[in-house]
Amino acid sequence: PRVRHILGKVKFSDSEKTMEVCHNTLTNSLTIVPVLEGPTPPPNSRSSPQDNGQPECYLVFIGCSLKEDSLKDWLRQSAKQRPQRKALKTRGMLTQQEIKNIHVKRHLDPLPAGYFYNGTQFVNFFGDKTDFHPLMDQFMNDYVEEANREIERYNRELEQQEYRDLFEQKPKP
């Protein structure tokens, strides 16, 4: 299938304005101009008030061997895609940056008995030194739990959002 020319009126998701589009694939020229709002013709007695015989948005494809299903699939790719559910985090997924951020945020938390902080390292009763807070494992677990609560909230909100296929008819009010 070869699309030679596309023309029509569309609304982009970031604007309320109707735009006239025209694309010629042979010259790769694209024009997009706002539709000038002018007086509308009186309604036809056979059509509903909001339907003046012309659809609000449409595209016309001119070409050879065009197939409706192929064009619909192609157009679906240009529409806003349904976001994917996020996977829950595990400790193993933490990046070095996340671990560093946890350390920076929590390194001054109270120390367990037998530990002190010498200004650069944590030292235990036996003189062993570490760069990370002795409760760092718990801090990482807390971080993963909080991140997963956020992910679960996001996924719940995603489930409640309505997504319709580009070519599904909208229910009549």
Question: Can you describe this structure?
Answer:
The chain has 173 residues and is an alpha+beta fold. The protein has two domains: 2-78, no CATH class; 91-160, no CATH class. The chain is built from three helices and seven strands; from the N terminus they run E-E-E-E-H-H-E-E-E-H. It has helices at 68-78, 96-106, 136-160, and strands spanning 2-11, 18-24, 29-34, 58-64, 115-117, 122-124, 129-130. Strand 1 and strand 2 form a beta hairpin. Helix 2 (96-106) packs across helix 3 (136-160). It is elongated and about 90 Å long. Residues 5-35 form the DAAF9 CobW C-like domain. Residues 33-53 are annotated as: Disordered. It comes from Mus musculus. This is 4930402H24Rik protein. It holds the Pfam family CobW_C_DAAF9.
Short structural summary:
By secondary structure, the chain is an alpha+beta fold.
